[in-house]
Amino acid sequence: MTDVGIDAIEIHAGKLKLDLPGTFAPAKGEDPEKYTKGLGLHASSLPDVYEDIVTMGANAARKLMDRKGLEPADIGRIDVATESAFDNSKPVSTYIAGCLEQVYEGDFRHANKGERKFACVAGTQAIDDAYNWIRAGRNRGRAALVVATDTALYARGDAGEATQGAGAVAMLIDEDPSLVSLSTEQGYGSMDETDFLKPNQQFPSVDGKRSVQVYLARMREALTDYESVATDTHPDDFVMVPFHTPFPGMVRKAALLGYRHMIRDTEIEEALADEIGRQPRPEAFEDDESYLDAIAEYTDKLKGTDRYREWYARSIDPTLELARHVGNWYTGSVHVARASGLKHALENDLDITGKQLLVASYGSGAQAEVHSETVQPDWEEEIAGLDIDDQLAARRDITFEEYETVHDVHNHDEETDVDPFTSPEAEFVFDGWGRMGERQ
Ligand code: CAA
Fold first, then answer.
1. Which residue, 79, 127, 380, 420, has most beta carbons within 10 Å?
2. What is the pLDDT of residues 252-284, one digit of tens each?
Protein backbone atom coordinates (compact mmCIF):
# COMPACT_ATOMS: atom_id res chain seq x y z
CA MET A 1 0.00 0.00 0.00
CA THR A 2 1.29 3.49 -0.87
CA ASP A 3 2.81 5.49 1.97
CA VAL A 4 0.88 8.59 3.04
CA GLY A 5 2.29 11.34 5.20
CA ILE A 6 3.67 14.86 5.35
CA ASP A 7 5.19 15.85 2.03
CA ALA A 8 6.19 19.39 2.95
CA ILE A 9 5.98 21.85 5.80
CA GLU A 10 6.22 25.63 6.11
CA ILE A 11 6.22 27.77 9.23
CA HIS A 12 5.11 31.38 9.73
CA ALA A 13 6.08 33.02 13.02
CA GLY A 14 4.36 36.09 14.47
CA LYS A 15 6.44 39.14 13.58
CA LEU A 16 6.99 40.41 17.11
CA LYS A 17 9.32 39.08 19.77
CA LEU A 18 8.70 39.43 23.47
CA ASP A 19 11.94 38.77 25.32
CA LEU A 20 10.80 36.85 28.39
CA PRO A 21 13.84 37.02 30.71
CA GLY A 22 14.96 40.45 29.43
CA THR A 23 11.66 42.37 29.12
CA PHE A 24 8.71 40.44 30.52
CA ALA A 25 10.18 39.06 33.76
CA PRO A 26 11.56 42.42 34.99
CA ALA A 27 8.26 44.16 34.20
CA LYS A 28 6.44 41.51 36.23
CA GLY A 29 9.00 41.65 39.04
CA GLU A 30 9.91 38.00 38.48
CA ASP A 31 13.21 36.14 38.37
CA PRO A 32 14.26 35.71 34.69
CA GLU A 33 15.39 32.17 35.53
CA LYS A 34 11.78 31.16 36.10
CA TYR A 35 11.51 31.55 32.32
CA THR A 36 14.86 30.26 31.08
CA LYS A 37 15.35 27.45 33.59
CA GLY A 38 11.85 26.73 34.92
CA LEU A 39 9.59 27.05 31.89
CA GLY A 40 12.47 26.68 29.39
CA LEU A 41 11.43 29.77 27.42
CA HIS A 42 13.46 32.72 26.12
CA ALA A 43 10.95 34.52 23.92
CA SER A 44 7.40 34.50 22.60
CA SER A 45 6.45 35.18 18.98
CA LEU A 46 3.51 37.55 19.00
CA PRO A 47 1.33 38.78 16.14
CA ASP A 48 1.77 42.33 14.90
CA VAL A 49 -1.45 44.35 14.69
CA TYR A 50 -2.05 43.29 11.06
CA GLU A 51 -1.58 39.58 11.75
CA ASP A 52 -4.20 37.05 12.77
CA ILE A 53 -4.84 33.35 12.38
CA VAL A 54 -5.95 33.84 8.77
CA THR A 55 -2.99 35.91 7.60
CA MET A 56 -0.44 33.71 9.38
CA GLY A 57 -2.06 30.54 8.00
CA ALA A 58 -2.36 31.97 4.49
CA ASN A 59 1.25 33.17 4.51
CA ALA A 60 2.50 29.75 5.59
CA ALA A 61 0.31 28.02 2.98
CA ARG A 62 1.44 30.36 0.23
CA LYS A 63 5.08 29.74 0.99
CA LEU A 64 4.44 26.02 0.89
CA MET A 65 2.57 26.20 -2.42
CA ASP A 66 5.26 28.37 -4.00
CA ARG A 67 8.12 26.14 -2.86
CA LYS A 68 6.34 23.00 -4.10
CA GLY A 69 5.15 24.66 -7.32
CA LEU A 70 1.49 23.93 -6.54
CA GLU A 71 -1.66 25.36 -8.08
CA PRO A 72 -5.12 25.26 -6.43
CA ALA A 73 -6.00 22.37 -8.76
CA ASP A 74 -3.37 20.21 -7.00
CA ILE A 75 -5.13 20.56 -3.64
CA GLY A 76 -8.41 18.73 -2.99
CA ARG A 77 -8.87 19.54 0.68
CA ILE A 78 -8.05 22.38 3.05
CA ASP A 79 -8.38 21.78 6.78
CA VAL A 80 -7.55 24.37 9.36
CA ALA A 81 -6.87 23.43 12.96
CA THR A 82 -7.26 26.27 15.41
CA GLU A 83 -8.54 27.11 18.86
CA SER A 84 -8.55 30.84 18.05
CA ALA A 85 -11.37 30.86 15.48
CA PHE A 86 -13.40 34.09 15.27
CA ASP A 87 -16.29 32.66 13.24
CA ASN A 88 -18.68 30.04 14.61
CA SER A 89 -20.08 29.31 11.16
CA LYS A 90 -17.58 29.70 8.32
CA PRO A 91 -14.42 27.64 8.80
CA VAL A 92 -11.14 29.54 8.83
CA SER A 93 -10.09 27.48 5.79
CA THR A 94 -12.57 29.45 3.65
CA TYR A 95 -10.85 32.71 4.64
CA ILE A 96 -7.44 31.23 3.91
CA ALA A 97 -8.60 29.87 0.55
CA GLY A 98 -9.96 33.36 -0.23
CA CYS A 99 -6.54 34.86 0.43
CA LEU A 100 -4.76 32.27 -1.70
CA GLU A 101 -7.18 32.75 -4.57
CA GLN A 102 -5.99 36.37 -4.81
CA VAL A 103 -2.54 35.24 -5.90
CA TYR A 104 -2.93 31.95 -7.80
CA GLU A 105 -4.46 31.04 -11.13
CA GLY A 106 -7.64 29.07 -10.58
CA ASP A 107 -9.61 28.60 -7.38
CA PHE A 108 -10.45 26.13 -4.65
CA ARG A 109 -14.11 25.56 -5.59
CA HIS A 110 -13.40 21.83 -5.95
CA ALA A 111 -11.73 21.58 -2.52
CA ASN A 112 -13.43 20.25 0.60
CA LYS A 113 -12.81 22.77 3.39
CA GLY A 114 -13.21 22.35 7.09
CA GLU A 115 -12.07 23.34 10.53
CA ARG A 116 -10.88 20.97 13.23
CA LYS A 117 -11.24 21.81 16.89
CA PHE A 118 -9.93 19.96 19.87
CA ALA A 119 -7.52 22.48 21.40
CA CYS A 120 -3.90 21.80 20.44
CA VAL A 121 -4.40 18.20 19.29
CA ALA A 122 -6.58 19.42 16.39
CA GLY A 123 -3.53 19.90 14.11
CA THR A 124 -2.75 16.20 14.37
CA GLN A 125 -6.43 15.32 13.98
CA ALA A 126 -6.55 17.35 10.76
CA ILE A 127 -3.55 15.39 9.46
CA ASP A 128 -5.39 12.17 10.37
CA ASP A 129 -8.47 13.29 8.45
CA ALA A 130 -6.34 14.03 5.40
CA TYR A 131 -4.52 10.70 5.76
CA ASN A 132 -7.81 8.81 5.95
CA TRP A 133 -9.21 10.71 2.95
CA ILE A 134 -6.18 9.77 0.87
CA ARG A 135 -6.04 6.16 2.09
CA ALA A 136 -9.75 5.79 1.33
CA GLY A 137 -8.94 6.67 -2.31
CA ARG A 138 -11.17 9.75 -2.31
CA ASN A 139 -8.46 12.27 -3.17
CA ARG A 140 -8.40 11.77 -6.98
CA GLY A 141 -4.65 12.32 -7.06
CA ARG A 142 -4.89 15.57 -5.11
CA ALA A 143 -3.06 16.45 -1.93
CA ALA A 144 -4.50 17.92 1.28
CA LEU A 145 -3.44 21.21 2.81
CA VAL A 146 -3.49 21.24 6.60
CA VAL A 147 -2.93 24.55 8.37
CA ALA A 148 -2.47 24.75 12.16
CA THR A 149 -2.76 28.40 13.16
CA ASP A 150 -3.24 30.09 16.52
CA THR A 151 -2.73 33.21 18.55
CA ALA A 152 -2.08 31.70 21.98
CA LEU A 153 -2.75 34.69 24.20
CA TYR A 154 -3.87 34.69 27.84
CA ALA A 155 -5.56 37.38 29.91
CA ARG A 156 -3.09 39.81 31.41
CA GLY A 157 -2.08 38.68 34.87
CA ASP A 158 -2.98 35.03 34.15
CA ALA A 159 -0.09 32.63 34.85
CA GLY A 160 -0.39 31.43 31.26
CA GLU A 161 0.77 34.85 30.02
CA ALA A 162 4.31 33.52 30.42
CA THR A 163 3.74 30.86 27.76
CA GLN A 164 2.13 32.85 24.94
CA GLY A 165 2.93 32.64 21.26
CA ALA A 166 1.54 33.02 17.76
CA GLY A 167 2.28 31.30 14.50
CA ALA A 168 1.11 28.93 11.82
CA VAL A 169 2.34 25.67 10.36
CA ALA A 170 1.19 24.61 6.88
CA MET A 171 1.60 20.97 5.90
CA LEU A 172 0.98 19.15 2.64
CA ILE A 173 -0.37 15.64 3.16
CA ASP A 174 0.15 13.40 0.16
CA GLU A 175 1.01 9.97 -1.18
CA ASP A 176 4.73 9.09 -1.35
CA PRO A 177 5.60 11.93 1.02
CA SER A 178 9.04 13.56 1.02
CA LEU A 179 9.26 14.26 4.76
CA VAL A 180 7.63 11.58 6.94
CA SER A 181 5.19 8.74 6.35
CA LEU A 182 2.56 8.04 9.01
CA SER A 183 1.94 4.67 10.61
CA THR A 184 -1.61 3.33 10.87
CA GLU A 185 -1.26 2.61 14.60
CA GLN A 186 -2.40 5.26 17.05
CA GLY A 187 -2.99 5.44 20.78
CA TYR A 188 -5.46 7.72 22.56
CA GLY A 189 -6.06 9.01 26.08
CA SER A 190 -9.22 11.12 26.15
CA MET A 191 -11.47 12.43 28.89
CA ASP A 192 -13.91 15.29 29.53
CA GLU A 193 -11.82 17.84 31.47
CA THR A 194 -12.40 21.45 32.49
CA ASP A 195 -8.89 22.68 33.31
CA PHE A 196 -8.61 24.82 30.15
CA LEU A 197 -11.58 26.20 28.23
CA LYS A 198 -12.77 29.17 26.18
CA PRO A 199 -16.59 29.14 26.13
CA ASN A 200 -17.30 32.11 23.85
CA GLN A 201 -14.49 34.17 25.31
CA GLN A 202 -11.33 35.63 23.85
CA PHE A 203 -8.85 34.32 26.40
CA PRO A 204 -8.94 30.92 28.09
CA SER A 205 -9.99 30.17 31.66
CA VAL A 206 -7.14 28.02 32.90
CA ASP A 207 -6.32 26.01 35.97
CA GLY A 208 -2.64 25.91 35.02
CA LYS A 209 -1.39 23.45 37.64
CA ARG A 210 -4.23 21.03 36.97
CA SER A 211 -3.65 21.36 33.21
CA VAL A 212 -0.13 20.01 33.69
CA GLN A 213 -1.46 16.94 35.53
CA VAL A 214 -4.15 16.35 32.93
CA TYR A 215 -1.54 16.51 30.13
CA LEU A 216 0.56 13.88 31.91
CA ALA A 217 -2.39 11.61 32.71
CA ARG A 218 -3.87 11.60 29.21
CA MET A 219 -0.41 11.12 27.68
CA ARG A 220 0.20 8.06 29.84
CA GLU A 221 -3.15 6.62 28.73
CA ALA A 222 -2.32 7.31 25.08
CA LEU A 223 0.99 5.46 25.44
CA THR A 224 -0.77 2.49 27.04
CA ASP A 225 -3.35 2.47 24.25
CA TYR A 226 -0.61 2.77 21.62
CA GLU A 227 1.20 -0.22 23.11
CA SER A 228 -1.91 -2.31 22.60
CA VAL A 229 -1.60 -1.90 18.80
CA ALA A 230 2.03 -1.08 18.07
CA THR A 231 4.74 -3.70 17.89
CA ASP A 232 7.07 -1.92 20.28
CA THR A 233 7.60 1.26 22.26
CA HIS A 234 11.16 0.72 23.33
CA PRO A 235 12.68 4.22 23.70
CA ASP A 236 15.67 3.33 21.53
CA ASP A 237 13.34 2.52 18.61
CA PHE A 238 12.73 6.22 18.09
CA VAL A 239 15.32 8.69 16.90
CA MET A 240 13.28 11.57 18.36
CA VAL A 241 10.06 12.05 20.29
CA PRO A 242 8.36 15.38 19.48
CA PHE A 243 5.79 16.25 22.15
CA HIS A 244 3.15 18.97 22.21
CA THR A 245 5.16 21.82 23.72
CA PRO A 246 3.18 24.53 25.54
CA PHE A 247 6.57 25.30 27.11
CA PRO A 248 9.70 23.12 27.23
CA GLY A 249 9.39 22.59 31.00
CA MET A 250 6.13 20.71 30.34
CA VAL A 251 7.91 18.39 27.94
CA ARG A 252 10.64 17.80 30.53
CA LYS A 253 7.95 16.29 32.76
CA ALA A 254 6.16 14.41 29.96
CA ALA A 255 9.37 12.94 28.56
CA LEU A 256 10.44 11.64 31.96
CA LEU A 257 7.09 9.92 32.51
CA GLY A 258 7.07 8.64 28.93
CA TYR A 259 10.56 7.17 29.28
CA ARG A 260 9.64 5.53 32.60
CA HIS A 261 6.62 4.04 30.90
CA MET A 262 8.55 2.77 27.88
CA ILE A 263 11.40 1.13 29.82
CA ARG A 264 9.08 -1.04 31.96
CA ASP A 265 10.03 -4.72 31.60
CA THR A 266 12.94 -3.96 29.29
CA GLU A 267 16.67 -4.48 29.65
CA ILE A 268 16.93 -0.76 30.49
CA GLU A 269 14.85 -1.09 33.65
CA GLU A 270 16.93 -4.16 34.50
CA ALA A 271 20.23 -2.36 33.87
CA LEU A 272 19.15 0.54 36.08
CA ALA A 273 17.81 -1.66 38.89
CA ASP A 274 21.02 -1.72 40.93
CA GLU A 275 21.36 2.06 40.67
CA ILE A 276 17.77 3.21 41.31
CA GLY A 277 15.71 0.08 42.02
CA ARG A 278 12.72 -1.20 40.05
CA GLN A 279 9.82 1.14 39.49
CA PRO A 280 6.54 0.73 41.33
CA ARG A 281 3.55 -0.24 39.19
CA PRO A 282 0.60 1.51 40.75
CA GLU A 283 -2.38 -0.41 39.38
CA ALA A 284 -5.06 1.39 41.32
CA PHE A 285 -4.91 5.07 42.14
CA GLU A 286 -7.55 7.55 43.11
CA ASP A 287 -6.69 10.34 40.71
CA ASP A 288 -3.98 11.72 38.43
CA GLU A 289 -2.16 13.38 41.31
CA SER A 290 -1.90 10.23 43.43
CA TYR A 291 -0.53 8.33 40.43
CA LEU A 292 2.20 10.95 39.99
CA ASP A 293 2.95 10.77 43.74
CA ALA A 294 3.25 6.98 43.58
CA ILE A 295 6.01 7.10 40.97
CA ALA A 296 7.68 10.36 42.05
CA GLU A 297 10.53 8.78 44.01
CA TYR A 298 11.47 6.56 41.07
CA THR A 299 11.23 9.31 38.45
CA ASP A 300 13.33 11.63 40.62
CA LYS A 301 16.11 9.06 40.61
CA LEU A 302 15.59 8.17 36.96
CA LYS A 303 16.13 11.73 35.73
CA GLY A 304 19.58 11.78 37.36
CA THR A 305 20.84 8.67 35.55
CA ASP A 306 23.33 8.98 32.66
CA ARG A 307 21.15 6.69 30.60
CA TYR A 308 18.13 8.98 30.89
CA ARG A 309 20.15 12.14 30.37
CA GLU A 310 21.67 10.75 27.17
CA TRP A 311 18.27 9.69 25.85
CA TYR A 312 16.80 13.12 26.67
CA ALA A 313 19.70 14.96 25.01
CA ARG A 314 19.38 12.84 21.87
CA SER A 315 15.61 12.36 21.56
CA ILE A 316 13.91 15.30 23.26
CA ASP A 317 16.15 18.33 23.54
CA PRO A 318 16.47 18.89 19.76
CA THR A 319 12.67 19.05 19.44
CA LEU A 320 12.55 22.01 21.86
CA GLU A 321 15.03 24.32 20.13
CA LEU A 322 12.41 26.36 18.26
CA ALA A 323 9.82 26.36 21.06
CA ARG A 324 12.30 28.09 23.38
CA HIS A 325 12.19 31.10 21.06
CA VAL A 326 8.54 31.16 20.00
CA GLY A 327 6.43 29.93 22.95
CA ASN A 328 3.17 28.04 22.57
CA TRP A 329 1.48 27.91 19.17
CA TYR A 330 -1.32 25.60 20.37
CA THR A 331 -2.31 23.53 17.28
CA GLY A 332 1.04 24.17 15.57
CA SER A 333 3.14 23.32 18.59
CA VAL A 334 3.82 19.60 18.09
CA HIS A 335 4.48 20.27 14.40
CA VAL A 336 7.03 22.93 15.34
CA ALA A 337 8.60 20.31 17.65
CA ARG A 338 8.89 17.82 14.78
CA ALA A 339 10.38 20.51 12.50
CA SER A 340 12.77 21.55 15.25
CA GLY A 341 14.06 17.99 15.69
CA LEU A 342 14.51 17.47 11.95
CA LYS A 343 16.24 20.84 11.61
CA HIS A 344 18.64 19.87 14.37
CA ALA A 345 19.33 16.59 12.55
CA LEU A 346 20.07 18.47 9.32
CA GLU A 347 22.38 20.97 11.02
CA ASN A 348 24.26 18.16 12.75
CA ASP A 349 24.51 15.83 9.75
CA LEU A 350 22.56 13.07 11.46
CA ASP A 351 21.63 10.16 9.24
CA ILE A 352 17.97 9.66 10.15
CA THR A 353 16.48 8.43 6.87
CA GLY A 354 14.24 5.45 7.58
CA LYS A 355 14.30 6.11 11.33
CA GLN A 356 11.16 6.41 13.45
CA LEU A 357 9.73 9.41 15.27
CA LEU A 358 7.22 8.90 18.07
CA VAL A 359 4.92 11.90 17.87
CA ALA A 360 2.99 12.75 21.04
CA SER A 361 0.20 15.30 20.52
CA TYR A 362 -2.04 16.77 23.17
CA GLY A 363 -5.03 19.07 23.46
CA SER A 364 -6.67 20.41 26.60
CA GLY A 365 -10.18 19.36 27.28
CA ALA A 366 -8.52 16.75 26.98
CA GLN A 367 -6.97 14.29 24.56
CA ALA A 368 -3.53 12.89 23.93
CA GLU A 369 -2.63 11.00 20.76
CA VAL A 370 0.52 9.01 20.02
CA HIS A 371 1.67 7.62 16.68
CA SER A 372 4.93 6.87 14.89
CA GLU A 373 6.30 8.30 11.66
CA THR A 374 9.11 7.16 9.35
CA VAL A 375 11.59 9.75 8.10
CA GLN A 376 11.65 9.72 4.27
CA PRO A 377 14.72 9.89 1.97
CA ASP A 378 14.02 13.49 0.82
CA TRP A 379 13.62 14.91 4.33
CA GLU A 380 16.85 16.95 4.14
CA GLU A 381 15.76 18.91 1.08
CA GLU A 382 12.41 19.69 2.68
CA ILE A 383 13.90 20.89 5.96
CA ALA A 384 16.64 22.88 4.19
CA GLY A 385 13.82 24.91 2.59
CA LEU A 386 12.64 26.30 5.95
CA ASP A 387 13.48 29.94 6.61
CA ILE A 388 12.40 29.98 10.25
CA ASP A 389 15.82 31.16 11.53
CA ASP A 390 15.62 34.22 9.26
CA GLN A 391 12.06 34.92 10.40
CA LEU A 392 13.03 34.73 14.07
CA ALA A 393 16.04 36.98 13.53
CA ALA A 394 13.89 39.56 11.69
CA ARG A 395 11.29 39.86 14.47
CA ARG A 396 10.85 43.24 16.10
CA ASP A 397 11.87 43.07 19.76
CA ILE A 398 9.09 44.94 21.61
CA THR A 399 9.11 46.80 24.91
CA PHE A 400 6.71 45.88 27.68
CA GLU A 401 4.52 48.91 26.89
CA GLU A 402 4.38 47.90 23.22
CA TYR A 403 3.47 44.39 24.31
CA GLU A 404 0.52 45.77 26.28
CA THR A 405 -0.68 47.74 23.25
CA VAL A 406 -0.46 44.72 20.94
CA HIS A 407 -2.19 42.53 23.51
CA ASP A 408 -5.02 45.06 23.78
CA VAL A 409 -5.39 45.17 20.01
CA HIS A 410 -5.72 41.39 19.82
CA ASN A 411 -8.23 41.51 22.66
CA HIS A 412 -10.15 44.03 20.53
CA ASP A 413 -9.71 46.59 23.35
CA GLU A 414 -8.12 49.02 20.92
CA GLU A 415 -8.99 50.13 17.44
CA THR A 416 -6.90 48.27 14.89
CA ASP A 417 -5.52 51.58 13.55
CA VAL A 418 -2.61 51.33 15.99
CA ASP A 419 0.48 51.69 13.82
CA PRO A 420 2.12 48.38 12.94
CA PHE A 421 5.54 47.70 14.42
CA THR A 422 6.86 45.93 11.34
CA SER A 423 6.35 46.29 7.63
CA PRO A 424 6.08 43.10 5.60
CA GLU A 425 6.30 42.95 1.85
CA ALA A 426 4.10 40.77 -0.35
CA GLU A 427 2.31 39.05 2.50
CA PHE A 428 -1.32 38.70 3.46
CA VAL A 429 -2.31 41.22 6.10
CA PHE A 430 -5.44 41.84 8.15
CA ASP A 431 -6.72 45.22 7.06
CA GLY A 432 -9.98 45.47 8.98
CA TRP A 433 -12.98 43.16 9.26
CA GLY A 434 -13.74 41.42 6.00
CA ARG A 435 -10.69 42.83 4.27
CA MET A 436 -7.90 40.37 4.02
CA GLY A 437 -5.53 41.58 1.40
CA GLU A 438 -2.06 41.28 0.04
CA ARG A 439 0.28 44.07 1.05
CA GLN A 440 2.35 45.13 -1.94
N1 CAA B 1 14.66 29.51 38.77
C2 CAA B 1 14.45 28.29 38.25
N3 CAA B 1 13.21 27.71 38.13
C4 CAA B 1 12.17 28.42 38.59
C5 CAA B 1 12.32 29.70 39.16
C6 CAA B 1 13.64 30.24 39.24
N7 CAA B 1 13.86 31.44 39.76
N8 CAA B 1 11.09 30.15 39.51
C9 CAA B 1 10.20 29.17 39.18
N10 CAA B 1 10.86 28.14 38.63
C11 CAA B 1 10.29 26.90 38.11
C12 CAA B 1 9.24 26.30 39.02
O13 CAA B 1 9.81 25.48 40.01
C14 CAA B 1 8.41 25.51 38.01
O15 CAA B 1 9.08 24.32 37.67
P16 CAA B 1 8.43 22.88 38.03
O17 CAA B 1 7.07 22.89 37.42
O18 CAA B 1 9.35 21.92 37.42
O19 CAA B 1 8.36 22.85 39.51
C20 CAA B 1 8.46 26.38 36.75
O21 CAA B 1 9.59 27.24 36.91
C22 CAA B 1 7.24 27.28 36.57
O23 CAA B 1 7.09 28.04 37.73
P24 CAA B 1 5.67 28.15 38.43
O25 CAA B 1 5.04 26.78 38.53
O26 CAA B 1 5.79 28.94 39.66
O27 CAA B 1 4.92 28.99 37.32
P28 CAA B 1 3.46 29.52 37.30
O29 CAA B 1 2.64 28.90 38.37
O30 CAA B 1 3.51 30.98 37.25
O31 CAA B 1 2.92 29.02 35.89
C32 CAA B 1 1.93 27.34 34.53
C33 CAA B 1 3.16 27.74 35.31
C34 CAA B 1 0.82 26.95 35.52
C35 CAA B 1 2.25 26.16 33.65
C36 CAA B 1 1.45 28.55 33.69
O37 CAA B 1 2.45 28.96 32.81
C38 CAA B 1 0.18 28.28 32.90
O39 CAA B 1 -0.92 28.35 33.41
N40 CAA B 1 0.33 28.02 31.55
C41 CAA B 1 -0.81 27.82 30.68
C42 CAA B 1 -1.35 26.42 30.77
C43 CAA B 1 -0.38 25.42 30.20
O44 CAA B 1 0.43 25.69 29.34
N45 CAA B 1 -0.53 24.16 30.66
C46 CAA B 1 0.30 23.08 30.14
C47 CAA B 1 -0.50 21.80 30.04
S48 CAA B 1 -1.98 22.08 29.10
C49 CAA B 1 -1.46 22.09 27.46
O50 CAA B 1 -0.39 21.67 27.15
C51 CAA B 1 -2.38 22.67 26.44
C52 CAA B 1 -1.88 24.01 26.04
O53 CAA B 1 -1.16 24.14 25.08
C54 CAA B 1 -2.29 25.15 26.84
1. 79
2. 999 999 999 999 999 999 999 999 999 998 766
